[in-house]
Amino acid sequence: MLPIIASICTLLLSTQAQIQDELIISAAASLKGALEAIELTYQQKKPEISIIYNFGASGSLQQQIEQGAPVDIFVSAASQQMDALESKDLLIEGTRRNLLSNKIVLITPVNITDISGFEDLTKPEIETIALGEPRSVPAGKYATEVFNFYGILGDIQNKFIYGNNVSQVLTYVDTENVDAGMVFLTDAKTSKKVKIVATAPSESHTPIIYPIALIKGSQQVKIAKEFIEFLASNEGQMIFDKYGFQRL
Q1: If you ran DSSP here, which 8-state letter would residue 49 be given?
Q2: Phi/psi of residue 189, nearest 5 degrees
Q3: What's the mean pLDDT when you consider all of the chain?
Q4: Do residues 214 and 190 both lie within one domain?
């Protein structure tokens, strides 16, 4: 009887440990491929940790956190959303850091030949341009800054088709439902059905920064900090490199 009781206790403790080691991460949609690859590598090192991702537009994820969603780590595709959470004292002090950078690019379906640069978007034959909703999708905000830099924003605004996140924008172009779209370089690299026709110069938009931080109320501070350290390590950064992200 005693060995059976001991086995049950061990099982219960093991189950409890698994529950305690669940890490919830809200991250910008553009990080999906890289973070899923990182999960596979990390769980070989820490099999006792279960990572749960919630991918979406940075602004939407910010609102979820403000409304009390259970989140341990937040990774945004822009500083604006992290700044908003910090101003409301929702970050664990001392855990915020800048993790990565990216580039914003103009893409078209592979069969489109009328576009070779941003100014070509003003052509009458270019009827639809996809971008993220600028108020909640950082890639959409960067896109409008680029259009403004080239002096074409007012001329093409009536052509905009908005996506809820950058992945949806890529899908619009990928499926030829629009003539062109603005996405991160890392997103463009995931599809063979689109081509990059122009890369926005760094001076045409605010710096593209991916900040990361722990959220107040997290019950997993220790393992969350360890995971962030792995993301920032050379091993973690090498995985981000493969997906086209830039180191800071």
Answers
A1: P
A2: -70, -15
A3: 93
A4: no
DSSP 92: P
Q: Is residue 97 part of a domain?
A: yes
Q: How far is Cα 21 from Cα 189, in angstroms, rounded to an integer?
A: 33
- Stated pTM of the model: 0.86
Looking at residues 72-87, what average pLDDT do you find? 97
Can you read off the two tokens belonging to residue 23? 């890490």
CB atoms under 10 Å from CB of 68, counted, come to 9
Query: Is residue 239 a contact partner of residue 107, using CB atoms and an 8 Å limit?
Result: no
Q: If you search the block for the tokens 């990565």, which residue do you land on? A: 100
CATH assignment of the domain containing 63: 3.40.190.10
Q: Which pair of structure tokens corresponds to residue 185?
A: 């370089």
**Domain assignment of residue 8, yes or no:** no
12 in a structural domain: no
Structural domain of residue 82, as residue ranges? 21-101+209-243
Q: What six digits make up the tokens of 195?
A: 């081509």
Domain count, the chain: 2
Tell me the mean pLDDT in the region 151-161. 98
The 8 Å CB, 24+ separation contacts for 152-157 are 152/118, 152/119, 152/121, 152/122, 155/122, 156/121, 156/122, 156/126, 156/129
Backbone φ/ψ region at 94: left (φ over 0), alpha (ψ -120 to 50), beta: left
Contacts of 34 (CB under 8 A, 6+ apart): 186, 239, 240, 242, 243, 245
